[in-house]
Amino acid sequence: MDEKEKRDNEIKWGIERFQQLINPFGSSDVRAAIAELTDAGIKDPGNELSDILDSFMEETGIPMDDVDITAIAFEHLLQKAREEFDDIASIDIVDDHDFSVVGNYMCSSVDYTSEGMETLMIELSKLDTETLDKLFANDFTTWFFDSVEITREEIEELQTKKC
Questions:
Q1: Distance between CA atoms of residues 5 and 81, nearest Å
Q2: Does residue 45 contact residue 57 with C-beta atoms inside 8 Å?
Q3: For the residues of 35-85, what is the DSSP string, one character each?
Q4: Based on C-alpha coordinates, what's the Rg of the chain?
Q5: How do the domains of the chain map onto residue ranges?
Q6: pTM to 2 decimals?
Q7: Among 52, 65, 74, 125, fewest CB within 10 Å belongs to which?
Q8: Percent of the chain that is helix, strand, coil (3-state, to 5)
Q9: Is the CB of residue 136 less than 8 Å from the CB of residue 58?
Q10: Cα 157 to chain centroid, rounded
């Protein structure tokens, strides 16, 4: 390794070390948050996560050291999915069906009751094909379906049982 390569490696290591020291979040938590945003179709998940964090701290007054970075990513995505469900199908997955986020750092997830899941599945089974197509084509609603393990086939099976 020549001197230039050695210097470049030292600079790279210095930058990484600096970022580790000023970043209060564990790398696994950040990775989980970025992965969820990416899975939801966010094209620049690092920038989006930074914006989500800034907004969250501004709105709540909670200092960065006390933020669950993965949970706020989930909260953001659940809200986006909620807006899309409302726009596409007039369904409120939060207020009417009790879906929420359980924050647990890299193990954060979308939570729900069995009753909430059942009532949502019934409501989804009443939708026409065009509306279901729109829901399953949308990045945020698809992220939601994946998060709670709802498949189109399950919905269509319920539709068939009603006939």
A1: 47
A2: no
A3: HHHHHTT-SSHHHHHHHHHHHHHHHH---GGG--HHHHHHHHHHHHHHHHH
A4: 20
A5: 26-162
A6: 0.87
A7: 65
A8: 70, 5, 25
A9: no
A10: 27
User: Which residue type sits at 130?
Assistant: E
* Integer CA distances (angstroms), 157 to 24, 134, 163, in order: 46, 18, 10
Cα separation of 120 and 160, whole Å?
Answer: 16
Phi, psi of 43 (to 5 degrees): -80, -30
CA-nearest of 19, 25, 15 to 53 is 25
For 51-101, how does the pLDDT look when each residue is reduced to its tens digit (9 = 90+)? 999 999 999 999 998 999 999 999 999 999 999 999 999 999 999 999 999
In this prediction, residue 63 carries a pLDDT of 92
First and final CA of the chain: distance in angstroms? 72
Neighbours of 57 (CB within 10 A): 15
Measured from the Cβ of residue 49, the count of other Cβ atoms closer than 10 Å reads: 22
The lowest-confidence range among 19-33, 93-107, 148-162 is 19-33
What phi-psi label fits residue 39: left (phi over 0), alpha (psi between -120 and 50 degrees) or beta? alpha
